[in-house]
Amino acid sequence: MGLGAAAAAASAVPALAQAGERPLGPSLSALAKAKGVRFGSAVGAGKPGSLTGSLEDPRYRQVLIDECGVLVPENELKWYALRPDAKAFAFERADRIAAFAKAHDIALRGHTLLWHHPKWFPAWLNHYDFGSGPAGKAEAQAMLVSHIAKVIKHYPQIDSWDVVNETIDPQDGSIRRTVLSDVMGQEATLDVAFQTARAFAPKARLVYNDYMGWEAGNEAHRAGVLKLLEGFRKRGTPVDALGVQSHLGTEDPAAPGSLGRPQDKPWRAFLDEATGMGYDLLITEFDVNDRDLPGDVATRDTAGASVAKAYLDLMLDYRQTKEVLAWGMVDKYSWLQNFTPRKDGLPKRATLYDDAYKPKPMREAVAAAFRAAPVRT
Asked: What is the set of domains in the chain, with CATH numbers?
């Protein structure tokens, strides 16, 4: 990084820092950019005129403006939110996020073109009768292609897509079956998704996204993902990167009272195999699930910041890691508040800012990890 770039990063002080409402110094986006990484967050559209969703909260919007270089719609581009039936598209909620990003010169990612998991398909799709034989296969493929093409063309500003999400069953590493793959074939369904995305977004980064973690208990999941990635390469499927969701503390339920049991060596071996196939890495959904930690806030925040720093130091040591995306920036808007709730009923402290919009130790842990990271070219 030249002197000019360093000076620009150092001068990128968040807008509200002088009022004492934001950290003094560079934003997380600026710290990441100085190392060739992009930092941002997921955001929900909420309901217009209310404070029930993060984008409708002016104080939360300011956190996003101050800290983020990229945003991703949290749920608004998933089939169950976007497709009320086989013919209609409901773009309005995602459009609000896209307009906000454009108005503030923030990049936009797409999540997801195909969440290949029957649990998250809309009911109408799970019960759709494609028939059988070549005609059924052709109809299923036409529906998938038209969906991906229409969504990509609607958001030309999106430069990075989670094309396929969570198709590996963590229990045995197999590819999940869906109504689409039952008529198209499992590998063919995934290949068509990526081929269509490349055709309509030729310059975008195309990502396979999944939640295999570094904690114990993820071994079969990791093996299945590696097999999937290897298959993509053998078939020439246009996949650029592996999205590593990074919901720390969520994927190891056998570790009560902790944030999981990290397996550094097996995790590095997993990353080495993925990058050795030529894949970039993205941290796509970063947060820390403190469900099993003691209730004391200081204890939880210290533990969360510590595991966040250790994890990010490891991940950013790979120069193939190109993006770090928090799955929300303020605790009260985190999806984890309603997912595996704490037994004591206390709200979780899973993100970088607390409910008073104040930066937490986790925010400083992320900043420190960016400062320590090697520069990407």
From this structure: 3-372 (3.20.20.80)
